[in-house]
Design a protein that fits this description.
By secondary structure, the chain is of the alpha+beta class. 34% of the residues lie in helices and 36% in strands. It has two domains: 3-127, Ribosomal Protein S5, domain 2, CATH 3.30.230; 131-187, 2-Layer Sandwich (Alpha-Beta Plaits), CATH 3.30.70. The chain has five helices and ten strands, in the order E-E-E-H-E-E-H-E-H-E-E-H-E-E-H. The longest helix is centred in the middle third of the chain and has 19 residues, at 104-122.
Length: 191
Amino acid sequence: MLKTVEAEFYAELEEKKSRFLAFLVPIEQFDTRLEQLRTEHRKANHHVTAFRLIHDDDHIEEGAKDDGEPAGTSGMPMLKVLIGRDIINCGVIVVRYFGGTKLGAGGLARAYSGVASMALDVATLVPWQRIIRKTVTGRFDQTSEIERQIALLKLSVIDRSYHETGVDILLEGPQATIDEMDAFMHELNLY
């Protein structure tokens, strides 16, 4: 089952006097947070990233950047942690302050993947659900029953549009919950 985060989480690791600061962020905040961290940590040697994003067609886009570290020693190990834990729609940004001692390729890979794992360990992971929108239509005499079901399913109402025969209600919610609403509408012969 795919999982994600709804807030930012932080972990820190020190390895041979190098400091690794990991920020696990929702994908919507990823680019903005990266720019903020570059500004806040101007003296850091590296800002390494890895992310996973699922598109509407279920295609998963992934990326990793080493930001000056030796190729494959930092971003890719962090991405592998995200893949291994079935994490989606978020990214990890690791700010590294060099401590004066070279860690070698293996040491770098262990440090970057380790601090990414630590951030996931402290994170509150939630099951990822596709959020969709759907319009339901009902007659005026059915409106209260439809509204009651919407409230029961905890769907968000984005818009209500009234017309001469009834109402169109634009809903937003997890795919599975929208499917439940569809079943309710069919059961009442409202479609």
